[in-house]
Specification:
Elements lengths: L21 H16 L6 E5 L7 H7 L5 E6 L2 H10 L7 E5 L2 E2 L8 E2 L12 E6 L8 H14 E11 L1 E2 L1 H15 L12 E2 L3 E3 L9 E4 H10 L3 E2 L19 E6 L4
Parallel strand pairs: 1-2, 1-6, 2-3, 4-5, 6-7, 8-11
Antiparallel strand pairs: 7-13, 9-10, 10-11, 12-13
Length: 258
């Protein structure tokens, strides 16, 4: 059977806000995921913050008939679209809404820092999150990492994108801030200029809009969750780097096998 066309899985515009071509971004993320994770047919995967199934669609063929996929998201309308257009194409694909919130501005029944993923222990070969931690605050990030460590099988791996603050990225952000200072009506409009210690945000009133984390905080959080980070980290182009795999920084980690 010929591989499915990603152009056939583009949801209506009200379900996504991507500035770029939807299918092109899906391909780029899919290729990056497979490259860094070594994802194989027949494996079981979890897509945290799956949205409207941008990565689910290319995985329909990649995982094969023996593979399985679980995705959850807080947006019920996106999950409904996935259940109508993607889930019927593969018996091992399932999507569900989780009523979680990450800030006082969001609706939901459970804070991100208290969420228990709706899956049993040691259930997945791979857990991935794209553009999730870039919109979360520290308590949610730490809780999610703990849950990822719980639901991964021994030897399983996780792929997560971040904006990581280290000497290089801080220097680049500070230089951007200085460049904008003369033209911006408010210097704090510069990107990620609100510093809260282990993280920075762009908008103090809506902090979850864009969040960058101190790299050491992130690495410590992985370790506390029983996850071992692969090095080198694959840094992204978000602060002006060239020749990167993605815009965001990409971290691969594993639950050690016994």
């Amino acid at each position: 059977m010929a591989a499915r066309r990603l152009e056939d899985f583009i949801p209506p515009p009200d379900l996504f806000t991507a500035r770029d071509d939807y299918a092109a971004v899906a391909r780029r993320l899919y290729y990056a995921l497979v490259e860094v994770s070594g994802l194989r047919a027949g494996e079981r995967v979890l897509d945290v913050g799956c949205g409207a199934g941008r990565l689910a669609a290319p995985l329909l063929d990649h995982l094969g008939s023996e593979g399985s996929y679980e995705g959850f998201d807080r947006d019920a309308s996106r999950i409904d679209w996935c259940n109508e257009h993607i889930a019927p194409l593969h018996p091992g694909f399932r999507f569900q809404t989780v009523s979680v919130f990450n800030s006082s501005r969001q609706k939901g029944t459970l804070p991100a820092g208290e969420l228990t993923f709706p899956y049993p222990d040691a259930d997945f070969d791979l857990v991935f999150l794209f553009s999730v931690f870039t919109h979360m605050l520290p308590d949610g990030v730490e809780r999610y990492l703990a849950e990822i460590g719980r639901v991964l099988k021994p030897g399983g791996r996780t792929v997560i994108t971040w904006f990581l603050l280290n000497d290089e990225s801080r220097r680049a952000l500070d230089e951007q801030h200085d460049e904008r200072r003369g033209s911006a009506s408010n210097a704090h409009q510069a990107r990620l200029s609100h510093d809260f210690g282990v993280y920075r945000v762009s908008d103090r009133a809506r902090p979850e809009a864009v969040v960058a984390f101190d790299e050491e905080f992130a690495l410590d959080a992985y370790a506390r969750s029983g996850l071992e980070v692969d090095h080198p980290i694959r840094y992204g182009s978000w602060v002006g780097r060239e020749g990167t795999l993605l815009n965001q920084d990409l971290v691969v980690a594993r639950r050690p096998a016994p």
